[in-house]
């Protein structure tokens, strides 16, 4: 009996390592909750920004520094998180990072009051939180590309990605109530404490202590891991489809980060008599079923025989194109009800990106999907830093929110055009060329 060629052997090994249906269901629910808790911690500052500004005397530009500082740290660990996820398992990377960001989030109110330098301390806290959360989505992308069947990948990713809307929804609803009754520190205590409880559950029921000890050992010897496992840089970055994926991910991440950071302030200042739980809850309540529907629709269309790239591009037309139209509408209405509808439509349609570009990265290079997603999300985080700060600057200097929403639409449209022109779904050939040998 002849041995299998190396490529076929790797493919068979990957199929054997995939989750069974019960395992996939258990992990999907757990990761959905984990993603929700990640966003609970992430949006705590945007939800509390006005109260914190009043307590500490921040103006719009200073608040913009704190809001954007999360992304300063977030962009630095994307590639590392994806690379480690590809090599040691994304679930281990996720759990270790969650235990750290949960602790930092719970300790943020105490850290902010260590001295009178509130702006510096809060900026430091958010940078640290960004560093710890930066590994999450690249590691998640790596995990799902290795463990989930290709025909079920879009729905699974969309279901897990719905946790971002779920977390924002919980923080918007419960956080608004806590904010009114107990003050802004209670929002941080809740999100950080729940994250630590989730870590305990995953450690007890889904991951063994031996796995975590091995993962910690690998993290300590991270540089040695990088030398042993060569990433095919040249083959990846020679392909227009890879750059198209990076551009689309950059645009979608930047647009979402701007909206996440400034929407609560927009509603609070434009409609001061409105209830916070309405605009902090309704858009994300719409986004959860929209994200699940987009994943179901994507897998269904592919199973019906539509070309994969056609489906991915259609999802991006919805996630980047149509969503930016509704974002523009937000800057041209004075009605609270219409604003909630437009915000809900824009946020809801952005969930279609999970079934478009996020899965397209796994189409192109499943063996190093975490690394590639890390590169794309690093670009998105860097753009987020600039976009959130620029949004605050435009609002402060023009006195109008229209300029900020126009920025969201411009960024989204540029990424969509590039992806429509150059996007592909065919797996990239990563075998070394004669020039590389």
UniProtKB/TrEMBL annotation:
One Pfam entry name: MFS_1
Gene name for this UniProt entry: SLC17A9
Cellular compartment(s): Cytoplasmic vesicle, Secretory vesicle, Chromaffin granule membrane; Lysosome membrane
Keywords assigned: Cytoplasmic vesicle, Lysosome, Membrane, Transmembrane, Transmembrane helix, Transport
Species this chain originates from: Panthera pardus
Protein name in the entry: Voltage-gated purine nucleotide uniporter SLC17A9
Main location class: membrane
Family named by the database record: Belongs to the major facilitator superfamily. Sodium/anion cotransporter family.
Gene Ontology annotations of biological process type: ATP export; purine-containing compound transmembrane transport
PROSITE patterns: MFS (PS50850), SUGAR_TRANSPORT_2 (PS00217)
Membrane-topology annotation of the record: Multi-pass membrane protein
An example molecular function term from Gene Ontology annotations: purine nucleotide uniporter activity
Phylogenetic classification of the source organism: Eukaryota, Metazoa, Chordata, Craniata, Vertebrata
Membrane-spanning segments: 93-112, 119-137, 157-179, 186-206, 241-262, 282-302, 314-333, 371-395, 401-422
Any GO CC annotation of this UniProt entry: chromaffin granule membrane
Role description: Voltage-gated ATP nucleotide uniporter that can also transport the purine nucleotides ADP and GTP. Uses the membrane potential as the driving force to control ATP accumulation in lysosomes and secretory vesicles. By controlling ATP storage in lysosomes, regulates ATP-dependent proteins of these organelles. Also indirectly regulates the exocytosis of ATP through its import into lysosomes in astrocytes and secretory vesicles such as adrenal chromaffin granules, mucin granules and synaptic vesicles.
InterPro entries in alphabetical order: MFS, MFS_dom, MFS_Na/Anion_cotransporter, MFS_trans_sf, SLC17A9-like, Sugar_transporter_CS
């Amino acid at each position: 009996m002849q041995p299998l060629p190396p490529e076929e052997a790797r493919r068979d090994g990957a199929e054997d390592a995939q989750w069974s249906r019960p395992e996939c269901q258990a992990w999907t629910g757990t990761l959905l909750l984990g993603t929700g808790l990640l966003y609970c911690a992430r949006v705590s500052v945007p939800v509390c920004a006005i109260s914190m500004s009043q307590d500490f005397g921040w103006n719009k530009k200073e608040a913009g520094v704190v809001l954007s500082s999360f992304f300063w740290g977030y962009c630095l660990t994307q590639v590392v998180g994806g690379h480690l996820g590809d090599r040691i398992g994304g679930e281990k990377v996720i759990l270790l990072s969650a235990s750290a960001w949960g602790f930092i989030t719970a300790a943020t109110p105490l850290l902010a009051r260590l001295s009178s330098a509130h702006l510096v301390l809060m900026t430091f806290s958010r940078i640290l939180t960004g560093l710890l959360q930066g590994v999450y989505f690249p590691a998640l992308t790596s995990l799902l590309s290795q463990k989930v069947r290709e025909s079920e990948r879009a729905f699974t990713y969309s279901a897990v990605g719905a946790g971002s809307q779920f977390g924002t929804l919980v923080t918007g609803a419960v956080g608004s109530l806590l904010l009114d009754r107990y003050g802004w520190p209670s929002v941080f205590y809740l999100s950080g404490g729940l994250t630590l409880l989730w870590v305990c559950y995953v450690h007890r029921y889904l991951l063994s202590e031996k796995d975590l000890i091995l993962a910690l050992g690998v993290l300590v010897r991270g540089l040695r891991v990088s030398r042993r496992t060569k990433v095919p840089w040249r083959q990846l970055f020679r392909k227009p489809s890879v750059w198209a994926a990076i551009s689309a991910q950059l645009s979608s991440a930047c647009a979402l980060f701007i909206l996440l950071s400034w929407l609560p302030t927009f509603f609070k200042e434009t409609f001061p008599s409105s209830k916070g739980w309405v605009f902090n809850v309704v858009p994300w309540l719409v986004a959860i079923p929209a994200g699940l529907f987009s994943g179901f629709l994507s897998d269904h269309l592919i199973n019906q025989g539509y070309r994969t790239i056609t489906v991915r591009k259609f999802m991006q037309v919805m996630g980047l194109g149509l969503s930016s139209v509704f974002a523009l509408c937000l800057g041209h209405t004075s009605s609270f009800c219409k604003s909630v509808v437009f915000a809900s439509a824009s946020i809801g349609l952005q969930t279609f990106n999970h079934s478009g570009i996020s899965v397209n990265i796994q189409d192109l290079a499943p063996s190093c999907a975490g690394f590639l997603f890390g590169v794309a999300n690093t670009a998105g985080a860097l753009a987020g830093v600039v976009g959130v700060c620029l949004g605050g600057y435009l609002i402060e200097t023009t006195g109008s929110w229209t300029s900020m929403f126009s920025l969201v639409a411009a960024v989204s449209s540029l990424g969509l055009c590039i992806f429509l022109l150059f996007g592909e779904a065919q797996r990239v050939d990563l075998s070394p060329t004669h020039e590389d040998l």
